[in-house]
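REQUEST FORM: STRUCTURE PREDICTION
Request ID: SP-0412
Submitted by: Lab K.M.
Chain count: 1
Length (residues): 125
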Amino acid sequence: MAADSNQRIIVEKNPSEARLSELGIKSWPKWGCSPGKYQLKFDAEETCYLLKGKVKAYPKGYSGNEEEGGCCVEFGAGDLVILPKGLSCTWDVSVAVDKHYKFESTSSTPPPPPPPPPSSSSSSF
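STATUS: Completed
RESULT:
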């Protein structure tokens, strides 16, 4: 069974400085990890820019059968990567990772402000 197309990892190789600036990457928090294997689940869409490192990401259910779209996704230093919400995968980190990252909020607009409290002068019990 082929992987859900919404669960694809998107890798943009060597985005331009203008693109990075437009995204505001330098203001994003940083995260890093040493080489090893990590089981990860993304509860929100993550966009990250790798400053250094090398990763092979194996989506959950990896079959090893490339014809079924089950191959790993490789990315590393200089890559802009979008990891979809709901993705479960194993990261095989061969070179320590240092990255800027940002999680997308569930909605593109901020929630509305709460309603004002009821006026105390009109309360009646």
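NOTES: The chain has a mean pLDDT of 83.
Reviewed by: T.R.
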